[in-house]
Amino acid sequence: MTPINAFTSDSAGALPLHVLDKATFAAWLDAQPAATQAWLSSQQFTAAPGSVALLPGSDGLAGAVLGVGDRADAHAYAHAPFALPAGSRWQLANTLDAAELANLHLGWGLGSYRFARYRKPARLPAQLAATPSPEVLDVLAACLRVRDWVNTPTEDMGPQQLEDAARALAEAHGGTLEVIAGDELLEMNFPTIHAVGRASHRAPRLIVLRWGEETAPHLALVGKGVCFDTGGLDLKPADGMRNMKKDMGGAAHALALAGLVMARQLPVRLTLVVPAVENAVGPDAFRPGEVITTRKGLTVEIDNTDAEGRLILCDALAYASEMQPDAIIDFATLTGAARIALGPDLPALFANDDTLARQWLDAGEQTRDPVWRMPLWRPYQRYLNSGIADMANAGSRMAGSVTAALYLERFVDEGRTWAHLDVYAWNDSDRPGRPAGGEALALRSAWAMLKARYG
Questions:
Q1: Lowest-confidence range among 221-225, 351-355, 430-434?
Q2: How many C-beta neighbours within 10 Å does residue 168 have?
């Protein structure tokens, strides 16, 4: 995880920071000296969301006012670290309730992030003199892990590195790790994972992390780990391939959430399943028109080699279903269709269980880390029909995210609670607290949902 200089336990010399919104600003301003009132009035400062006003003193800077919007949204505070002077130190000067304070701390941490593996940041963030709660720090660490993993180029984040990340989490929290790699995937009946990854010089693998008490409710997390996606023989155009280091974003989310579950000691029996591959072009690349018999026994005709994520996930989901968990949740950067429908910030949620879906939707509203439920419209299964196999891995361009989810559902045992999140894992542009590059989306709401369900 990229280290950040967000917090300090040393409040010596820290300047007062007044965190206000438009509703509280007027009363606060009335209580300030005339010089402060005149200074802020001259700038027409109103504590609008995302604003900052520096307050002058006789010896230089005397404090600042941070304008925020929705106090329940951690990102309302995330502009502070880079809007305030570089390396300056601040201490909260007014009272926030416990939830607002947690959001301030989380937002400050998110806003302080810069990916620094290959170059130093241009400037340091401002520091907050504060001691965030252990849970805030664990949630922040999980979010920043996703960003770091997704931002890391494939040369340093291939299947082996995903395995290393899972192993580090297992060792840190007392879990166990099993890895099935290379041709052993065929011996252990994971044919689609092998087919997608066999053309790469880096062996495909299935990573399985186990943790928790056997008697606890069993939670299975599954993450799509395509460490780079060329599209295979159905090659992507250059602009479509440019950011395909991010195609392991689903695995990053599942890994980070698993780490959070273990760090917070959620009373579950956890199984994390990550199929990790590189969809490469080579003499052994799988081909359009081939038929693969999956782990579940269903035959799949390859309509398009660029619909590879659902292929590796189908064996992983079948494997997770065999364990008969209480719930299966998968994360995947699966379809461009979900982005066209909902844009980059809003992950598409598909679920076969209304209770689980409602729990996640409610958690998204509570944490301001939303998901949007999409339909498992089963008549669209016709778009996955094959003339020679049980089904095809792709087909019509109609309802692309829906048909992808319907494909995955075929590999979840009937009656097994399952949710699928089609997540972008990426910020297209720089915004306060949301730097361009890898992003954790619906990770905080997933954690809040799991706490409500199992905690």
A1: 430-434
A2: 13
**CA atoms of 311 and 205, how far apart (whole Å):** 13
Active-site residue flag, 296: no
Report the alpha-carbon distance of residue 275 to residue 193 in Å, rounded: 7
Q: In the 8-state DSSP scheme, what is residue 431?
A: B
Supply the DSSP string of 113-141, one letter for each residue. ----SSS--SSPPPEEE----HHHHHHHH
Tell me, what's the pLDDT at 59? 86
Residues 28 and 18: beta-carbon distance below 8 Å: yes
Q: What is the pLDDT of residues 157-178, one digit of tens each?
A: 999 999 999 999 999 999 999 9
CA atoms within 13 A on the CB side of 279: 33
With 0-12 / 13-18 / 19 or more C-beta atoms within 10 angstroms meaning exposed / middle / buried, residue 99 is exposed
Q: Which of 245, 310, 434, 444 is catalytic?
A: 310
> pLDDT at position 16, please?
98
Tell me whether residue 416 is one of the annotated catalytic residues.
Answer: no
* DSSP letter (8 states) at residue 159: H
* Angle, helix 249-263 to helix 159-173, in steps of 10 degrees: 10
Domains delineated in the chain: 7-132 (3.40.220.10), 138-454 (3.40.630.10)
- Which two three-digit tokens encode residue 233? 């023989």
> For residue 166, which of 222, 228, 110 has the smallest C-alpha distance?
222
Helices and strands, counts by H and E, the chain: 15, 20
Q: Give residue-wise pLDDT tens across range 100-129.
A: 999 999 999 999 999 999 999 989 999 999
Give 202-237 pLDDT, tens digit per residue. 999 999 999 999 999 999 999 999 999 999 999 999
CB 360 within 8 A of CB 419: yes
The token duo for 55 is 């307050």
Mind listing the pLDDT tens digit for each residue in 288-328? 999 999 999 999 999 999 999 999 999 999 999 999 999 99
The residue assigned the tokens 């709401």 is 445
Pair type for strands 205-211 and 218-223 = unpaired
C-beta neighbour count of 364 within 10 angstroms: 23
- pLDDT band, very low/low/confident/very high, at 372 (cuts 50, 70, 90): very high
Q: In 3D, which of 2, 442, 453, 72 has the Cα closest to residue 257?
A: 442
Q: Which of 22, 167, 210, 236 is catalytic?
A: 236
What integer best gives the mean pLDDT of the chain?
A: 97
121 CB-near residues (< 8 Å, 6+ apart)? 114
Please check whether residue 397 is in contact with residue 330, taking contact to mean a CB–CB distance below 8 angstroms: no
